[in-house]
């Protein structure tokens, strides 16, 4: 069955944290147990009582089709009983080490029992939900084997879930859509990425890479899409949430591949959007008590610019031309009218042509999951997932320019014609990025309960280095001074040029280590209880350095700084739950959290300082099932989000120019050791209804009040005199707001059948806004904010009661929608059309628009099938390369009444992708 790729909307923090790129990534130790009950003839048994006893006690009934499901069941050993008033009781012990399908068939009394027919990963169409949380399930491995190369494609079609990371053009890797370096981070129910936890076996994954900073959420682009068997988007303040740290909107839970029931092997070969090759292999082997699942994938792509000879508007013009001294004049030969006075873009006055630019990349990724069941009551496992990517750094983004000839020009480039050019110097910068996570875990029966012990080592690494061309033979366009004489280069002829020494080197290394200890036990036939402890430590290290000959003349060293700060959390959870009656269940958890920062003392660069924060809160979830076809759920409780590490420590020191070659102002970020974490209280009310045998409806309404949300205050504080002269100085410091709010509604209606017509309609409305602000919020030392002119207004983009509107650092999807219709003959033969709606507050900073994909699946042999995917059928915002351009809609409101400038992104190329899958 085809699982539609997922599309997204963004989530940047205008009044909050200015998003960069990441969320937190990982799997958890919970599974979905689904099954069906039939009699001796294979006829479904309705209204049979299904009892699950073990680490967690749960109770449900089969529906009219004999189906049942338990979601969020911790790994362990359970006794599962099917109780029919007519046929009697069937009982079996089940080892749950991954999502499990169970078939229960009543047989003659001497043979009565049930059979575990498969242990499988969950699919994208989560079945009837009877937990307090709203859960959407997706399958990363399945998406990878359908030719997808980015987490973006499995997230963007989930209403209410947003992906942040395009950076609105500020992240250069976003230039190439679906490249390995396109940062991807998720945010749930409006909450920003650093307020959305991603977990592996209840342990947070924390990493840093180019384009995102420590604590701003985990960049999923660091982790292999083909490495995880399933993933759950768990919304709201569910009482059985493994953590309340950074889970204001919910949690993203990644699962390692589960226990293997039968050997199987898969191969997938696909094209990508740029004509590259995507290959994935999977081997799942069961040998006695050992299960092993291995995945490996390679994505080699030419990208959107392979072999393209492009003009360069470079920060460092030639030192000499044909051996004679050279300098540029003030004659403007380049302009980008789409910028309309923006503070960055194509700004210098000399053009060189043509440099062989490329955006080609290659990526290797995969995982290995080993599980050894020593006995039904004891198992041990090791899970590894890793990824390595390499591509050129699209250093300062590409832009469409107009050529305006200087006086006296008679060359070959026509004036006023658009040209694709780049401003990244004279050579591509190679960038490497990798991740490596290893988890060891033990699950053991201890007394009546189950003990979990796990450890995680998670390392991410990014590095780039470059020595630009020392000399080249290029065409020159524009005016300059050559050997003391004014000269106009008319183009069409080549010149030998030399350049200032220029090099760049940077490395960011992060280490994240976690430890988990938990125990749960039944208290009686209907109730269970337990406790868990999770310790997480994050260390941000490495060195990042830029070297120029002179920072303002393309010569001498510019800046070098070490990164070495530590952030830890300890979280203790006590929980109890059960079934007060056949139709009700509840979960109650109490959480106690301590957050610790060990950072450099801003007043003494030799010493460090420690900051400690504590928080405790309960969460309660309740489910009422008035019938086998209706589940009404509710959840409420507190949450805790740490201030991102970089927001706390700032970059105290000498102010830095905004541009090392053509500075117009200085900036400095101040440390705020009084910055406090965010806390919240949230609720979620929802229902799941089975309208028909194959038709289900899910509805949720939620609200989260957030206290002390982190925001970025930037203030013009005067001038600063440095190497670039006396220029304006802007001071940035992160602080806490009063009360903010995320609220919304979600609706999902789907009809899914093994063969025949299937369809889905889903949508969400999400709002995020500031309720109250600290006193004097708009004031500076200079006086009171004048709204008409903006004078003395330090936070003009923070407007009470206005939806987070896509101001430069934040966007919450106000409206999202998905429609899918298709016809399926079998799991591999189908055709469908998927439309995704992005509201006016979308990740691409565009007016509201819809994008359409189509899919055709066809089996060519018993073990092989083809999948043809048509991406962006209408070609809306179709470009192989994201090019900065002024937005064509008004943008976000400000306190001054003038809209805040926005810059739009492209959705991605219109293309057809062919994938072949082989199963054995």
Give the CATH H-level superfamily: TonB-dependent receptor, beta-barrel domain
For this structure, the CATH topology is Maltoporin, Chain A
The name of the CATH architecture is Beta Barrel
Main sheet characteristics:
22 strands, antiparallel, barrel
- By DSSP (H or I, 4+ residues per run), the number of helices equals 2
Count of the separate structural domains = 1
Helix content: under 10%
Helix/strand-derived category reads mainly beta
Overview features:
globular, Maltoporin, Chain A, 22-stranded antiparallel β-barrel, mainly beta, 920 residues, 2 helices
Commentary on this structure:
With 920 residues, the protein is mostly beta strands. The protein has one domain: TonB-dependent receptor, beta-barrel domain (Maltoporin, Chain A, Beta Barrel). The strands form nine sheets. It has a 22-stranded antiparallel β-barrel. Strands 19, 20, 21, 23, 30 and 31 form a six-stranded antiparallel beta sheet that branches. It has a five-stranded mixed beta sheet with strand order 9-14-15-12-13, with no helix packed on it. Strand 32 and strand 33 form a beta hairpin. The N terminus is likely disordered.
Quickly describe the structure.
The chain has one domain: TonB-dependent receptor, beta-barrel domain (Maltoporin, Chain A, Beta Barrel), CATH 2.40.170.
Secondary-structure blueprint:
Elements (H helix, E strand, L loop, with lengths): L29 E9 L10 E5 L4 E4 L5 E8 L1 E9 L3 E9 L3 E6 L9 E5 L14 E5 L1 H5 L16 E4 L20 E4 L8 E4 L2 E2 L25 E6 L14 E6 L8 E8 L5 E11 L2 E12 L6 E5 L7 E2 L2 E5 L5 E2 L15 E7 L3 E15 L2 E16 L4 E6 L14 E5 L6 E18 L2 E19 L3 E12 L2 E14 L3 E21 L4 E24 L4 E8 L2 E17 L2 E18 L2 E24 L2 E12 L3 H5 L6 E2 L8 E4 L8 E15 L2 E13 L2 E13 L2 E12 L2 E13 L4 E17 L42 E12 L2 E10 L10 E11 L4 E8 L13 E2 L16 E2 L6 E9 L1
Parallel strand pairs: 1-7, 12-15, 40-44
Antiparallel strand pairs: 1-4, 2-3, 2-5, 5-6, 7-8, 9-14, 10-11, 12-13, 14-15, 16-17, 16-53, 17-18, 18-24, 19-23, 20-21, 20-31, 21-30, 22-26, 23-30, 24-25, 25-28, 26-27, 28-29, 29-32, 30-31, 32-33, 33-34, 33-35, 35-36, 36-37, 37-38, 38-41, 39-40, 41-42, 42-45, 43-44, 45-46, 46-47, 47-48, 48-49, ...
